[in-house]
Amino acid sequence: MNLKTQFTTVTSFSKIVAAALFISLPFFGFWLGTKFQKSLPNTQVVLVNNDTSVSTPIPTPEKKEKLPDACTDERLMNQAGINTCSQTLYDEANSKLAKIYALILKEPIILTEVDPQQKEREDRMLKKSQDLWKKYVDAECEYESDNFYGGSAWPMMYSGCQTNLTKKRIDDLLDVQKGFFGEIPSYLKEYSQN
Questions:
Q1: Per the confidence metrics, is the pTM higher than 0.90?
Q2: What are the chain's domains?
């Protein structure tokens, strides 16, 4: 196939066009990729076997938590600041758990036709469960953060684990109360995350 020389000759104009395409096409491709990504549903690819993968939805939080001041100051967003933020989030979750725990122990669960010693048994079991849960959190978070032990990110990993397990404990305690009453009791509704 013979092409005319005007189409095969390198000129100043062809160099400028080639340079412009060479520079602009990656940016255009990136922009196009981000637009395409936004049009896709939120999914993640999970490797099932060495040769099989499955696309699963990514859970999205129903409501966004307000971060404490220790987590919003941009001047503190170095590792020490992130560690402080992570500890603050744990302290808040732990304070919420302590309030729920105290309310559960304080409020009577007994209906008039139930055995009067039922509340005492339930309180003993809750205290035992809470003590064992605290030991579990310590052991689990030591295990989960062990790869970071001695590093600057270790406090963040440890308190992040504590925060996650504490929030789960709150949900579990509220679910148990919901099981007793058919719904979360009014004195605990403000602590419900749903």
A1: no
A2: 12-57 (no CATH), 69-191 (1.20.1270.180)
